[in-house]
Amino acid sequence: MYLGVELARRAVKALLVDDAQNGLARSAAPFSVSRPKPDRVELDPDDLWEALRTALGKLRKAQPQAFDAVKGMGIGSDLHGTILVDAEDRPVSPAILDEDRRASEESEALAGDFPAIAARTGHIPGPGHAAAVVRWLVVHERKAWAAAARVLQPKDYLLLQLTGRAVADPSDSSWTLWVDPAARGWCEEALTASGMPVDRLPEMAPARSVVGPIDPDAARDLGLPAGAMVTLGCGGDAARALSVGAIEGGAGFAALGEAGGLVATRGDSPAEGSGPGIVRSCHALEGVWLDSAPILDAAGCLAWLAGLTGASNEQALLAEAGQVDRDTGSLLFLPFRSGAADPFHDPNAKGVLYGLVETTRRADLTRAVLEGMAMAYAEGKEALAAAGHAIGELSVTGSDVRSPFWGRILASALGTPLIFHKDGSSYAAAFGAARLARLALTQESAQQVCTRPAADFTAQPVSSLAGRYTAKRESFRKLFRALQPSFADLP
Question: What angle do CA 458, 464, 467 make, to 5 degrees?
Fold first, then answer.
């Protein structure tokens, strides 16, 4: 029995997986973030532990015998940020999440002063990267920085609490801007550029590593079996890649969850540089890398609209819009409510709903949101193509929302068939983390364990829609460029 944990952007998710790779039970526990100022997004690190305890408690209640048989656990993380801990492994300040924009000047300085290092790390510097945040902390939070013994990502903070060891993997740590993906280790030049002492970082190890047995106190607190093994885990994209069998060069998938985007695997060591809209990172498996075109807010836009308009859920919105199925005319939606990671790499980007008229109804808003997300994904596909990827058929993962109507819109915007898998749920990163834990403990081959799930249905591009979306995408770009100068002036 294996336990997969997913650090989503606003919840901890957990999935119990048996030896036949069946998901026996799943649970989620939300956590809150704070916004003390318009440009700040923070998290109390202890809230992550409480959410983990709540999520695991639900699993234990649903499947007590299976829970007691857990042999190992792994974590896949979409939550990135900077956590400072002292010599006693306690947080010295709130975590600064990657949506935070306080270090905008520092990130601009990194991009301007050290372009070669940015190319080495595969990321264009942004204000939420730990490299920029640390430069800000050194100047503005001297007391907290002086008390910090280690700088950790959220996943690695949980690993520290689970095992007492500070260990990081290169896939999740790529988002710090301190990792050289080709070497799968800390990049000394990047550390020097941001003033980060290497002795304050966790040790680096391959994602398919065993960190150690769970700490006895942590096991009692979480109700896990004494002696259960904790494995290193990986970033969310790498975990989802394992969940859909994207384990060799040339594979790819579309992630439709809260944190989404298009991801393509690369089987050769990545060349330096990334390019606009693309980040390069390590896969969880040795000898494979990931090029991704991320969208920080992805399908969270649909959940937002459901709450805003009083719909019972996203599926109800899709059913209503699919029944109406009419063109939205000039209505456009920019799906960048969280900025930071978007096809245009503007951390100040905002969500925009443009072109409302008297006849606009909720079904039109739903379709506009779907089309806006599809336009953003199409921008990502273009960026991946410029990076040398031939994007063909794509797996779809990361969401419980399963709609041929939505699939048809996205497939038409991308010009690519999309395979919706029977197991391609919002717990895909947790499933991939459970698979990685199994690989770490059994030493089985990835080809044996990380197989592609069975297909549920395939969404094909529709030529009439594809032609319409080509023109609409140009309007999408023009609207963004016209509004972009004003984004930085908004709180």
Answer: 105
pLDDT for 403 equals 87
Do 330 and 289 touch, CB atoms closer than 8 A?
Answer: no
Are 264 and 164 spatial neighbours (Cβ–Cβ below 8 Å)? no
Q: How far apart are CA 161 and CA 158, in angstroms?
A: 5
| Contact predicate 100/140, CB 8 Å | no
Residue 276's pLDDT is: 67
For the cut 90, the answer to whether the pLDDT of residue 295 exceeds it is no
Tokens at 461, concatenated: 């591009």
Token duo for residue 31? 């956590």
Q: Compute the distance between CA of residue 100 and CA of residue 96 in angstroms, rounded to an integer.
A: 7
- Ramachandran category for residue 176: left, alpha or beta (phi over 0 → left; psi -120 to 50 → alpha): alpha
Determine what percent of the chain falls in helix, strand and coil, rounding each to the nearest 5. 40, 20, 40
Cα–Cα dist 342/295, whole Å: 5
Look at residue 270 in the predicted model and tell me its pLDDT: 64
Confidence of residue 122 (pLDDT cuts 50, 70, 90): confident
Closest of 223, 44, 206, 189 to residue 119, by C-alpha: 189
Map out the domains of the chain with their CATH numbers: 2-232 (3.30.420.40), 245-491 (3.30.420.40)
Kindly tell me if the per-residue pLDDT of 340 is higher than 70: no
pTM for this predicted structure:
0.92
Per DSSP, the three-state class of 84 is strand
Most confident of 75-79, 346-350, 419-423: 75-79
Cα distance between residue 483 and residue 97, in whole Å: 25
Residue 413 near residue 371 (C-beta atoms within 8 A): yes
Span 105-113, average pLDDT: 86
